Amino acid sequence: MCILCGELISSFHWSDVSFKEEKASISAGENQKERQRSRLERAKLLGLVLAFYGLSIKEWQNSKFILSDKKGKSLIVNDLGDLWLKAEELSSKPIDILDLNFINFLKEHHG
User: Fold this and answer.
1) pLDDT score, position 41
2) Cβ contacts of residue 87 below 8 Å, gap of 6+?
3) What global pTM score does this model have?
């Protein structure tokens, strides 16, 4: 249970599971360092994408993310499935990964 928010952390998003084995399953505490490293890398990559929309993301408590805009407003994001809805809530422009301005931004800033 999370001490701060009182939530049980009992479920994992599919992106938190390593599919090295066909029947991969995950339990709390198992492979924690590897999962944490993966989540931090994911947050870093998401930060590159979300920067175009004036947003930033941080990993929080090994189970959630904090999504923030430049004005200081923040939302707790449960997993990557929850991210895009909340990103649209905070962003001043619609999230569209096929937007040519977005694609050019990624090319210009990240090769």
Assistant:
1) 92
2) 50, 53, 55, 67, 95
3) 0.71
